[in-house]
Design goal:
Elements lengths: L2 H17 L4 H20 L2 E3 L9 E3 L2 H5 L9 E2 L9 H5 L4 E5 L5 E5 L5 E4 L2 E6 L2 E7 L3 E13 L4 E5 L2 E2 L11 E13 L5 E3 L2 H8 L3 H8 L3 H6 L1 H11 L3 E3 L2
Parallel strand pairs: 8-11
Antiparallel strand pairs: 1-14, 2-6, 3-4, 4-5, 6-7, 7-8, 8-9, 9-10, 9-12, 12-13
Helix pairs in contact: 1-2, 5-6
């Protein structure tokens, strides 16, 4: 059942209960039964994520589109570039704005820097640090690598600036009186909220809290073991808490 329909139903139940306190218990029980049945119906329209899963081709403007595997398809993007061009995404993402037709057939525009990412050949890419990077491990906790350029001025004021590029390569800018260095950084993505965090013990422990038993097991390890086994516990978490996507 559509989440919007369920949301409207919940609001109606709340209003009814507030107006009729005597019926609150009976109504609540009826609602729980209804919601349980709706959940069972919804589960038939979901598919479990496996390494063979392919994301639908297109642009993901926001993270909710990723969770629903419902991107803006190539055919809805307004561009003179041929849809079968092997460099299609790298070429359109060079533009400051992208034009597309929404679900109602209305032409819209969005700043390229504001899109979440895209899927190419079933593989997910995320926008970060002014570039687009492949998410190599997909799960309830995702893992990927992105570039970050750090600049240091000749006046002793170091600062960071995002690396410019697509697919882990591309030119980067420098400025007079500065030196720069580019490093590869590891990140994790919380697929429940869309938050991107640094790949470290603290971030992993925070995300493991969604599975108290696994979190307690991880927390009981020594600091050295936690650093060594971060990736193992991400894999354990993903196995115990699999992703599901709607069938479209």
């Amino acid at each position: 059942m559509d989440n919007k329909i369920i949301g409207k139903f919940v609001k109606a139940i709340v209003i009814f209960i507030n107006m009729n306190k005597a019926a609150s218990i009976t109504t609540a029980l009826l609602f729980l039964s209804f919601y349980s049945l709706a959940g069972q119906q919804d589960s038939t329209n979901l598919v479990k994520y496996t390494p063979d899963f392919k994301f639908n081709e297109g642009l993901f403007l926001v993270f909710d589109q990723v969770k629903n595997n419902n991107p803006v398809s190539k055919s809805r993007i307004v561009t003179p570039i041929a849809y079968d061009d092997p460099d299609f995404y790298s070429r359109i993402l060079e533009n400051k704005k992208i034009y597309f037709f929404n679900d109602l057939g209305v032409k819209e525009e969005i700043a390229t820097k504001n899109i979440w990412g895209f899927s190419r050949n079933g593989v997910l890419y995320i926008s970060l640090n002014e570039g687009f990077y492949r998410i190599t491990i997909v799960g309830s906790i995702c893992h990927f690598v992105a570039n970050l350029t750090t600049y240091s001025s000749n006046y002793g004021y170091p600062y960071s600036y995002p690396y410019y590029g697509y697919y882990d390569y591309g030119p980067y800018q420098s400025y007079p009186g500065t030196t720069s260095s580019t490093e590869m950084k590891q990140y994790i993505l919380d697929f429940k909220t869309g938050r991107v965090l640094d790949y470290n013990v603290e971030s992993v422990e925070v995300l493991l809290m969604a599975d108290p038993e696994l979190h307690d097991e991880f927390a009981s390890l020594s600091n050295k073991k936690q650093k060594q086994l971060k990736f193992l516990y991400i894999r354990k978490f993903n196995e115990r808490n699999p992703l599901y996507f709607p069938t479209i």
